[in-house]
Input
Amino acid sequence: MNDQAAVVKALLPVLGDTLDEATIQKLIEVPKTSNLGDYAFPVFTLAKTYRKAPQLIAKELVEKIDASQFEKIQAAGPYINFFLDKPQFSHDLLHEILTTADHYGDADLGKKGNVPIDMSSPNIAKPISMGHLRSTVIGNAIANILRKVGYNPIKINHLGDWGTQFGKLIVGYKKWGSEEAVKADPITNLLKYYVRFHQEDQENPELDDEAREWFRKLEAGDDEATKLWSWFREVSLKSFMKIYDMLGITFDSYNGEAFYNDKMAEVVQLLEDKNLLKESQGAEIVDLSAYDLNPALIKKSDGATLYITRDLAAAIYRKRTYDFVQSVYVVGNEQRDHFKQLKAVLKEMGFAWSDQIHHVPFGLITQDGKKLSTRQGRVILLEKVLNDAVDLARQEIDKKNPDLPNKEAVAKDVGIGAVIFHDLKNDRLNNFDFNLEEVVRFEGETGPYVQYTNARAQSILRKAGATELDAAADYTITDASAWEVLKALGNFPQMVVRASKEYEPSVIAKYALHLAKTFNKYYANTKVLVDDAEKPARLALVASVSQVLVQSLSLLGVNAPKEM
Ligand code: ARG
Output
């Protein structure tokens, strides 16, 4: 049981009729100073029901509450202050953490319900952008967090592998490209054709007609068009896989936009049956003015289907295939209106489950405060970022710990972990500036700092020969300086639940930083290895900190080397 749960449990029997568990939990506060207790419960809300002054209510309730789990419980004006029984708390908590191990903080909110997570989803023949990196690591962390609270996440890479751009790409390839060039460096060269197409079609508008014609052929299943398309897709995916491998991230499905080609006729039919399609300048749209949204463009005047049509088909397919309890889309904030439209159209179609669709948006990565832009040459190449991060980590390790075994593997864990952690530590909607040196620092609010704290904890345990801890031992800690660390450890389960409800990995990243900081402060002031009665308990505390740090990092998709 964690600390706050003890407060709820004490209050519930005396308040049972007036307030439910969730409300009590929400009302509990953490006092600003510790002389007011570890937790406080304000009774203002009860004044109406009890028809008494809050001060009086607080006094009367204190008499009734079972205080056996606490050091003391006091009424202070309109508050009830709870002082936890610290020695008892430390013993119970450390036992719980060490015996539940990786399962500490598990919950069953999800009841094994399926949650498809649409994540990463880069576009074929273009480089993976920093935005796609964000979607990949945020989506992966959300999947880990949801699994921990009992859902069954399904990671779907909704590849951008269809659309009019393939007509342009085919034209560009046939005019300026070669098989050898694409084989040698697929993304760079395919992108080149695409960019050149856009330069030349300014003067030469026939190019656009040709591109439209090739895309039409592709949609009609023409042999040559299909062969080129599937080749472009294959070589692009191969180069994306290199990056996913570096990040250690896998997917359950690569069904991209093209997968829904044969599933769109049904969508259009359903829209027609419900009388939702309107003609507008030759195109077919769904009017969404009732939602204060622009119309959803379902079919262009030339019959070509669009991004949102494919997303409608995908949403319906996912509901049928997974019978999801939530359907999550980790996609940049600039697509906010697209997902509002998607939900609105599904609602209009009569699908009550449209409410289970959640767009999880995130902010931009900037450089020197400026938005990145492929056209203006402000691009960050992801593979290079990851390689540079590993190089920086290697240099840092060479300075700090030149004899470290497995140096290469550790440099990889630290460098890649730093990039992932940096992305996840900010509220996901915030924009942030990318500066590699800052990302890989070993001090400050970084991934390496958390990893380093864990490695330090591991080294203490090694020194003490305490790799196996005795589950039956007494883990009572009376030393007040351990209190902040214990409280932080006890908060982990709540943090996991909060992160899962808010789809917000930064809750876990900030928590890990806080735990690491409190532990380092404790360690600087305490002789952990001194031989006295509380030594086993202190080692249990160190082991618990390491375990919870490793868990937090692993929820974020970051490895934690034992030495660094
Ligand atoms: N490929 C799109 C892009 O790069 C993102 C796709 C997001 N997922 C979706 N189901 N619409 O902008």
Notes: Residues 118, 121-123, 158, 160, 311, 314, 329, 331 surround arginine (CB under 6 Å). Residues 163-239 form one domain.
